[in-house]
Structure formats: C-alpha cells, structure tokens
Amino acid sequence: STLPAVAEELLREIKKAFQETSHVPDDMLLGLKFIFGPAAVPALDLVDQHSVTRVRSPSGRTLYQVLGSSGKLYTCYSSCHFCTCPAFGFSVLQKSESLLCKHILAVYLSQAMGACQELAVSEEQLTNILLAEEEDEG
User: Fold this and answer.
1) What is the pLDDT along the chain (138 residues), one digit of tens a residue?
2) 77 Cβ partners below 8 Å, 6+ apart?
3) SS3 letters across the chain
4) Locate the SWIM-type domain: which residues (predicted)?
5) Contact 44, 11 (CB under 8 A)
6) Which residues make Cβ contacts (< 8 Å) with residue 65, sequence separation at least 6?
7) Residue 116 phi/psi, 5° resolution?
8) Spatial distance between the Cα atoms of 87 and 7, rounded to a whole number of angstroms
9) Contact at 8 Å (CB) between 10 and 18?
10) How many Cα atoms occupy the beta-carbon half-sphere of 18 within 13 Å?
C-alpha cells in the first residue's frame, strides 16, 4: 500500500470500531481530518450517500466507482492508490499537497465500514469501463 503507516493504522482502527459499535468515534474523526485534511468531511459525505460501488469481474479484477458530489462518476483503484478525478491529478500527483482525493478516501472508508455497493460485471464490461476512462483523459 502507498499510504503512510499512520493512515493505514487509523483506517484499521476505524474498521474495528465500526464493526463493534456501528459508528466512528469522534477521536477517529478528528484523526481523519488531521491526516487527510480537507478530503475527510467530503469523503464521509460520499460514504453516507452510498456513493461508492465495488465493480468486480468473474476473474476477480476489482475497481471502484465513486459518484462524485458533482454527479460525475470517477474510477478509483485502491490497489495502486489512483483516482481519475482532476483533484487527484493536481493535488496529489502534481503538487503533492494531499495524500489522496476525497474519492479514494471514500473508497477506503466504505471498505472499513462495509458500505460499498456491489456490482458484478463481465470481463468485457470491465474492459469497457477502463477504456471509457482512457478516452475521457485522451
């Protein structure tokens, strides 16, 4: 994983707390805000709105789609810590101002809280999703 150890540990703690109590304690919310900055609150909003969908193909390939607050669908890859949104390209890759964008944080939080929608697709459908992203960027 490409997240700092402290961020990984916080996400593990959130998962554990959520499994035990079905909510995230205030101190962990403060930790999220401290580590992830301005992405924390919007990411939690995306989780609350069930905006994260895990897309899985029969071969086991997985990606995530997050319906952004603007209504646009972004593709996230938690395995390589990447999102197709402009904020990721600018704040994370170019400026190194943030660890991640709100969409990837929403993916990690949805995983921790068991809040992902599930979508099974064929290999061809998954390929089409990936090719559509390339065309958008191309």
Assistant:
1) 568 899 999 999 999 999 999 999 999 999 999 999 999 999 999 999 999 999 999 999 999 999 998 899 999 988 888 999 999 999 888 888 888 999 999 999 999 999 999 999 999 999 998 888 666 654
2) 63, 64, 83
3) CCCCHHHHHHHHHHHHHHHHHCCCCHHHHHHHHHHHHHHHHHHHHHHHCCCEEEEECCCCCEEEEEECCCCCEEEEECCCCEECCHHHHHHHHHCCCCCCCHHHHHHHHHHHHCCCEEEECCHHHHHHHHHHHHHHHC
4) 74-112
5) no
6) 52, 53, 55, 73, 74, 75, 76, 119, 129
7) -80, 140
8) 20
9) no
10) 16
**Residue 116 amino acid letter:** C
Token pair recorded at residue 19: 């499994």
Reading the block at residue 44, the tokens are: 């939690």
Token readout for 52 is 């994260």
